[in-house]
Amino acid sequence: MRAATYFFIFLNLSLAVFEEPAVYPLPFLVTSVVEVLCLLVFFGRLTHFAKVTHRNVFWKDTKNICIMVAILLSLTDLAIYGVLRIYNVRSIRWSRIVRPIFLINFAESRQIRRAFRSIRNTLPEITYVFLLFMFSLLMFSLMALKLFGERNLHTAEGLPYFKNYLEIVFDLYVLVTTANSPDVMMPAFDFSSWYALFFIAFVIVNTYIFMSLFLAVVYNNYKKHLKVMVGGLNCD
């Protein structure tokens, strides 16, 4: 039963590869039949669990409620999407975001649920680091607007360079990952090589310091919550 549950969960999650927009597109009828089959298996597994569990215990378990709601949402979305396709109305499968619920909430996924719970408990404690990072990003973006916005600079494509504040925030956010380095700084560097100091300071503060701090906080808090959880299980 555990192997079968994992197989159909994997099959259900894999449908995203074959549904529009897809990497390897398959006809809608094929993917819909497979999805209905997976949902029937999930419903059968839930019914089997309800038969061997006391009614009050079953209905008080949030995991069972989440699975039932996910099945209903998936079937509703599948039916609406199918009807809209008949009338050639373009739409999206919004129920895809609920598919990981099956992976987390079945009784067989105890280890995954434990890791998810640790991550959930860690999130509130990293909020302050994230807010500090966003404050730094916004301040550097404001500095970039003041430094480069009035220089009448242009990118290699001929577009205005650092004229719009929101676009600056996005470009510098991408620079944190170094994905657009050094292209994003070249118009300013061509104007004056001293402007490279601004981008060097930005990378040092946000990429090296804040990202390292962010990773350290996430790791330490996750380890703390996992240790408490494992200790509680050992006491039980």
Distinctive features:
single chain, 236 residues, mainly alpha, Helix Hairpins, 2 domains, 71% helix, Ion_trans_dom, signal
Structural notes for this entry:
With 236 residues, the chain is mostly helical. The chain has 2 domains: 1-108; 119-232, Helix Hairpins, CATH 1.10.287. The protein has 10 helices and no strands. The chain has helices spanning 2-14, 28-51, 55-60, 62-86, 100-105, 110-122, 127-148, 165-176, 186-191, 196-235. Helix 2 runs antiparallel to helix 4 (62-86), helix 6 packs across helix 10 and helix 7 (127-148) crosses helix 8. The chain is flat and about 75 Å long. The chain starts with a helix and ends with a helix. The model has no long low-confidence stretch (mean pLDDT 86).
SSE blueprint:
Layout: H1 2-14, H2 28-51, H3 55-60, H4 62-86, H5 100-105, H6 110-122, H7 127-148, H8 165-176, H9 186-191, H10 196-235
Helix pairs in contact: 1-2, 2-4, 6-10, 7-8, 7-10
Write a brief caption for the model.
The protein has 236 residues and is mainly α.
CATH architecture of the largest domain: Orthogonal Bundle
Q: How many independent structural domains?
A: 2
Shape summary: flat
Helix content: over 70%
Query: What structural class do the secondary elements suggest?
Result: mainly alpha
At the first level of CATH, the class of the largest domain is Mainly Alpha
**Count of DSSP-assigned helices:** 10
Distance between the termini: 26 Å
**Average pLDDT across residues?**
86
- State Rg: 25 Å
Strand content: under 5%
Main sheet makeup? none
Return the string of H and E elements: HHHHHHHHHH
Query: Number of DSSP strands?
Result: 0
CATH fold category name of the largest domain: Helix Hairpins
